């Protein structure tokens, strides 16, 4: 007897309703807040309707566009490096070998550490006087650097910390994807005389392309939401060289106490992430890939 099509909806419906309420209510409240001028600690009855003023300010404020530029550059550099390193490490660690389980466990440890602890750790490592990074440079006869006081070096510092923490996520996703590749396909390619390089680029990676796209999507979203590590490392400085959009929103909401402006900028961030997500989901659809 065939199960009616509405039966799965009965099981999924309650959980979907709870998730929808948990996601939609904050989203609608945040968009609503963007139309008001309200400070934390004051009654909502004292909020003043300002219409689209905060949204117009968000689109015309140079600080917002500067933060968006830093965010896009940060996300591009970090995600590109993490995807490249994660896939390369997965290809190296997928083969069964003695002690490989230990190395896999060691590689995923950074992802298990709390972001605050990661920020503190890298802040000490990049310390201008007592940092381990400068100690290594001096050991090789190079001059130490004020990593967190120089705009370019501070950006390098937040990029390195993010790559160190989240490359293991890509590694885990790719190890799981490569483990699901049909062994008979690989064996057939070996019989046909394919080299390791040809098997990797023409067999393995195309077969896990949808997993790569989903992993890319998840890392893009996380890169736009990162806050704690940069908050601890640089707090957006020096100047605004490392002030990503999420940190700019935090400052607008909790430092300047301008929650309406912060909500409007959050909507801008939501739109950017949604557009990037749609692009990634488009390329992650296996059916569309087969048509191409």
From TrEMBL:
<feature type="transmembrane region" description="Helical">
    <location>
        <begin position="105"/>
        <end position="125"/>
    </location>
</feature>
<feature type="transmembrane region" description="Helical">
    <location>
        <begin position="7"/>
        <end position="28"/>
    </location>
</feature>
<feature type="transmembrane region" description="Helical">
    <location>
        <begin position="163"/>
        <end position="186"/>
    </location>
</feature>
<dbReference type="Pfam" id="PF00528">
    <property type="entry name" value="BPD_transp_1"/>
</dbReference>
<keyword id="KW-0472">Membrane</keyword>
<feature type="transmembrane region" description="Helical">
    <location>
        <begin position="72"/>
        <end position="93"/>
    </location>
</feature>
<keyword id="KW-1003">Cell membrane</keyword>
<feature type="domain" description="ABC transmembrane type-1">
    <location>
        <begin position="68"/>
        <end position="280"/>
    </location>
</feature>
<keyword id="KW-0812">Transmembrane</keyword>
<dbReference type="InterPro" id="IPR051393">
    <property type="entry name" value="ABC_transporter_permease"/>
</dbReference>
<dbReference type="InterPro" id="IPR035906">
    <property type="entry name" value="MetI-like_sf"/>
</dbReference>
<dbReference type="InterPro" id="IPR000515">
    <property type="entry name" value="MetI-like"/>
</dbReference>
<keyword id="KW-1133">Transmembrane helix</keyword>
<keyword id="KW-0813">Transport</keyword>
<comment type="similarity">
    <text>Belongs to the binding-protein-dependent transport system permease family.</text>
</comment>
<protein>
    <submittedName>
        <fullName>Inner membrane ABC transporter permease protein YcjO</fullName>
    </submittedName>
</protein>
<feature type="transmembrane region" description="Helical">
    <location>
        <begin position="207"/>
        <end position="233"/>
    </location>
</feature>
<feature type="transmembrane region" description="Helical">
    <location>
        <begin position="262"/>
        <end position="283"/>
    </location>
</feature>
